[in-house]
Amino acid sequence: MKRFLYIIMSMAVLTAHAAGTPNCKSVVRVICFTATGDTLSQGAGFFISADGQAVVPYSIMKGAARAELIDWKQKSHPVTLILGANSNYDLVRLQSEARKMEFLPIAQGDTPQGTVLTLLHYDTNKKAVGDTATLTRADKYGDYHYYALSTPNDRSVAGLPLVNGEGEAVAVAQYNYDKQATTACAISARFAPGLTIPAMGALNADLRNIAIARDLPAAEDDAFTYLYMLHRMTTDSVQYVQASQRFAERFPRNVKGYTETAAFYAEHGNYAQADEALTAAIDCKNQADEAHYNLAEIIYQKALHHPQPPYKDWTLERALAESQTAFNLRPDTVYLQQQAHILFGMKRYAEAESLFLTAAKASKSPAELYHAAAMSRERLGAEPSQVIALIDSAVACYQRPYPAEAAAYLFSRAQHLETAGRHREAVQDYRDYEKAVGTKNLTAKFYNILQQAEQNAHQYQQAIDDLHTAIALAPTTAEKGEYQTEIAFIYLRAGMYEEAIVEAQAAQRLAPESSDVFKALGVAHGELGHKAEALKHLSRAQALGDTDAQKFIDRYATAE
């Protein structure tokens, strides 16, 4: 019974410390540092829990690589985690190493205009009680109030708590950036606990502008989304490693977390750490097929693209074995597709083609698999028509008007059709590709490829039109000159020599030192009987390095 009474009395004392007469013991001085250890900024904040959570201004935390909270006893407490941040409201909620601290509970409900509060400040005097401050205006924004204060507007007030008679934090003082302002403002303290790390926090600029480790979202799925996005967004390896370790501690049975971390380490060439993470994934025993699949994928990428230096038995053979283990645990088309890619990498093209086609029959999106089978068949030396037949199957997965997803297969088929001499069909595929991708997403190089196919298909006017498009899109004058010269050559081949001269002269203005331009001018003048002009331009082409100019010089020099 005495023990029970002692516990009750102890709790009463702690409660009094947390919510008694306002005092300054909960207020801290904040010191922020750069990555090189230089002092970046200083300010004030306050504890909102006994275990070291605090609220401080975002403006002093921005750019910080490290921070410390100095309590009223002048003891330093390193900041360990950013729990949430919002630059618009100039607030950061953070975790420090401090424990058993004086703190301010957050006042619930609204506080009306005219209320007199206590503005606490940092003070090493344990009896310091702060200054009075009146809420001269209380405006509601959404679920929270924004206040105007009677306190003079000074940057030193930012981050200080405004406390009611029960010792609860009503608001956080802020510097008023209004040029006409003479008094400070404040935001409801109830906003602070809502500062958390969202699932898409890796994209949040406010969080990314603070180089201190961040907390994870509370929900497991959200935490994984955050880890996944952080892997792809951050250039700060330390930030990712800290987050991955935290994720493993909180969700030790999450296989995706380990495989995501393994992929991160593998990308950075740290295969030992990747191996360790993948072993942890397999040891989870749940989703074992997925763990073996991811192990196979990482080994495959290493063995195929970064074979040197070798790491243990990470070979394509090992990757294939791991993928087969995944399939044996749970037959899935994705695992067959992976095995086919590995076989392709091993140059076992016949087996790869067979597996790609087997996977395609069971897949809801088989286009990629048909195309991969076509590439396997091509490596086996098959006739172009046999390769095109499989690419036809890939394109047949879509209907006109073709979506963007079909573009790669249309372009591939067009190239293979050209190789097979089926130029008009190739032109049609290039046109469909143009519509699928959208003209605004195409470059001059595409229109140059298209016009070459059109010339081979004897569609000369279309080729000229597309060369004009290429000229308009070309990023450099030299490239524009190259396409303009090609128009001149088309007219030459068509026997339209006067038109060829006009186009070649236009090309000369773009590329005045091009041997092709002078050759085009020389041949056009020569065919029109302008002997002197022809020899002049052809001699210039020869001087610029054209090896064919001499035969035309010989032809026109002897012409009557």
> How is the main sheet built?
6 strands, antiparallel, barrel
Say what oligomer this is: single chain
Assign the structural class, choosing from mainly alpha, mainly beta, alpha/beta, alpha+beta, or little secondary structure: alpha+beta
Question: Could you give the distance between the termini?
Answer: 130 Å
DSSP strand content? 5-15%
Anisotropy-based shape: elongated
Please write the CATH class name of one domain: Mainly Beta
Give me the CATH fold name of one domain. Answer: Thrombin, subunit H
Radius of gyration: 36 Å
Mean pLDDT: 93
Fraction of residues in helix: 40-55%
Chain-wise SSE layout:
Layout lengths: L1 H18 L7 E7 L5 E9 L5 E4 L1 H4 L4 E5 L5 E11 L4 E6 L19 E4 L11 E11 L2 E9 L8 E3 L5 E6 L8 E6 L16 H4 L11 H14 L3 H14 L4 H13 L3 H13 L4 H18 L10 H14 L3 H13 L3 H14 L4 H13 L4 H12 L11 H13 L3 H15 L6 H13 L3 H14 L3 H17 L3 H14 L4 H13 L3 H13 L5 H9 L3
Antiparallel strand pairs: 1-2, 1-4, 2-3, 3-6, 4-5, 5-6, 7-8, 7-10, 8-9, 9-12, 10-11, 11-12
Overview of the structural elements:
Among the domains are: 21-194, Thrombin, subunit H (Beta Barrel), CATH 2.40.10.120; 476-560, Tetratricopeptide repeat domain (Serine Threonine Protein Phosphatase 5, Tetratricopeptide repeat, Alpha Horseshoe). 51% of the residues lie in helices and 14% in strands. It has 22 helices and twelve strands. The protein has helices spanning 2-19, 58-61, 205-208, 220-233, 237-250, 255-267, 271-283, 288-305, 316-329, 333-345, 349-362, 367-379, 384-395, 407-419, 423-437, 444-456, 460-473, 477-493, 497-510, 515-527, 531-543, 549-557, and strands at residues 27-33, 39-47, 53-56, 66-70, 76-86, 91-96, 116-119, 131-141, 144-152, 161-163, 169-174, 183-188. It has a six-stranded antiparallel beta barrel with strand order 1-2-3-6-5-4. The longest helix has 18 residues, at 2-19.
